[in-house]
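The instructor's notes for this session suggest beginning with a concrete chain rather than abstract definitions. Hand out the sequence below and ask the class to guess, before any prediction is shown, which regions might be ordered.
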Amino acid sequence: MTVIQIGCSQQGLPNWVQQIVTGSIIVAAVGLDQWRQRSSGSDRS
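After discussion, reveal the predicted structure:
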C-alpha cells in the first residue's frame, strides 16, 4: 500500500484520489481471493 501511496504522490494526485485508488485495489484483491477460493473448492475458515 505504501508503494501505491508513494506512486500516487509522485503523480501529484489529490489525497481523495489516492484513497479511492487504494480502496479499489483492496476491494479487487478481496474479490479475487474470494473468486479463487470458490473456483478451487477450498474452504479455509
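Then share the key points. DSSP finds two helices and no strands in the chain. The helical segments are 2-10, 15-40.
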